[in-house]
Amino acid sequence: MDLAYLWFFIVGVLFVGYFVLDGFDFGVGMSLPFLGKDDISRRQIINTIGPVWDLNETWVIVAGACLFAAFPEWYATLFSGFYLALLLILLALIMRGVSFEYRHQRDSVRWRRNFDRMIVIGSAVPALLWGVAVGNIVQGVPLDADHEFTGSLLTLLNPYGLWVGVTTLLLFWLHGVYFIALKTDGQVMEDARKLALRLFIPAVIFAAGCVVWTIAIAAGREAPLLWAVIACGAVAAVFLIVSFLFNLRRSEGWAFTAGAITIVFAVLTLWLALFPYVMPSTVDPATNSLTIENASSTDYTLTIMSWAALVFLPLVLLYQGWTYWVFRKRVSRTRIEKAAAVAH
């Protein structure tokens, strides 16, 4: 296989990893107003991702760095054309990270509530805008002959882009609620299971519409991997239903696993629908579009990157796996109450 095509799939895998891992972080953050009935329960919810949220975010840094090195033309067009949307995502992520670190620094209800609101906003905005960005990449955007984006932020807020954005928001939220049910006990766990049941219907509606719409877009430009797009969409739908059934059976671990598999195949549905393009143009698609071949780096660069990935990627996976193993236990309400009593 040509290295450019290999790196298209490697970058896709990195984004899949990011959306699965930071996706449940977003979902946890969005759940605060619905599950955090008091400060103890809110701390319980936040502590589920406390040890791992920053590690999960590194996946997008690695994915962006690989995109820059493997597909510089794609990187330049994407980050210059989508800069307002990506800036909003960056500001939201900064807001969320600051809130995690500062909410406990002052014993004030108002102080903590303000940072809790920032966590919710800093989780919902990226969950929505990442979907909008990916949806527009798949659908295609106006590019001129120099591969420069000629639209604006409003161009990105089209029906398909917004539909994909709402879909990612709902799937990430559901994924995060499953994670809360897996990692907590008591009333928070029970409320999380009930919230997951309420989120399931809208998630199914938007996910089904997203899959059908994406298949139609791929079929419209005769995508060579259309069969894989259809297969991945079907697998995502099946595992979304399976996650619901496991939640009904109170099997939190399996519900979370099925939710993660849903996101994996949902992202793959979008990514494979893009192939062999990396950024289709809606203006003269035959000549203005960015493809894997005309957007990639030289074979020498891609060869060096391939050897580096072969060495370092397994180490990163081992370290992340070890981190999750160390912090595998549930976050109990009793333990937080004891810590709060000691602090006072």
Q: Provide mean pLDDT, rounded.
A: 92
Q: How many runs of DSSP E, i.e. beta strands?
A: 2
Main sheet record:
2 strands, antiparallel
CATH superfamily placement: Formate dehydrogenase/DMSO reductase domain
- Approximate shape: globular
The helical percent reads: over 70%
Indicate the structural class.
mainly alpha
CATH topology grouping: Formate dehydrogenase/DMSO reductase fold
* Uncertain ranges: none
Classify the beta-strand content into a percent band.
Answer: under 5%
Q: Return the string of H and E elements.
A: HHHHHHHHHHHHEHEHHH
Q: Write the CATH architecture name.
A: Up-down Bundle
Distance between the termini: 62 Å
CATH class category name: Mainly Alpha
Number of domains: 1
* Rg value: 21 Å
Strand ordering within the main sheet: 1-2
Alpha plus pi helix count:
16
Describe what this molecule looks like in 3D.
Helix 3 packs across helix 16 and helix 7 (109-139) crosses helix 9. The chain has one domain: Formate dehydrogenase/DMSO reductase fold, CATH 1.20.1630. By secondary structure, it is mainly alpha-helical. It contains 16 helices and two strands. It is globular. A two-stranded antiparallel sheet has the order 1-2. The N and C termini lie far apart (62 Å). The longest helix has 35 residues, at 186-220.
Notable traits:
transmembrane; Formate dehydrogenase/DMSO reductase fold; mainly alpha; two-stranded antiparallel sheet; Cyt-d_oxidase_su2; single chain; 344 residues; cell membrane
Gist of the model:
The chain crosses the membrane at residues 6-32, 77-98, 119-140, 160-183, 195-219, 225-246, 253-274, 304-327. The chain has helices at residues 3-30, 32-35, 39-49, 53-70, 72-81, 83-102, 109-139, 153-156, 159-183, 186-220, 226-248, 252-274, 285-288, 292-295, 299-326, 333-343, and strands at residues 277-279, 290-291.
